[in-house]
Amino acid sequence: MATALAPEVVISHDSAVSPTSNRRRFTAAYKMKILEEIDRCNHHGDIGALLRREGLYSSQLAAWRRAREQGDLATRAALVRRRGPKPKQVDPGKERSDKKIAELERELARAVKRAERAEALVEVQKKVSALLDQIDQVHRLKLDAKLERSDLSDDEITGQR
Predict the structure, then answer these.
(1) How far apart are CA 29 and CA 76, in angstroms?
(2) 32, 34, 57, 86: which is deepest, by most CB within 10 A?
């Protein structure tokens, strides 16, 4: 039932707007063509008219000019600024050098441990030598005391028979 306030008309949703938007992508040739046209604009308002006609923004124009000045307009990667985290650049030479550095650091750590053990061994040897010298001195003192008390021959002192 249609009333005067609410007519019975079915409205279709056939609009020109799509439910999902797509980002526009411009080729390097198109960008160069637009930049050349902009360079030829002499009158006040020509650039604005060109931007409106092409549906572009002045920020895009500035980015394209910067890319052209840097010589990056030919490379797609320099023109399209990707959103999100930047991918890591893998350099095979750097990867090899990192592995080599890690290997050399492990080798250095092993050499340092060996040197520390050798130094500790030398210290122990010095202490043992000092103790043996003390024992030898005590033994000589005892031998000298025996010599004074008794009449031993030189062969008995040296331990030979």
Answers:
(1) 11
(2) 34
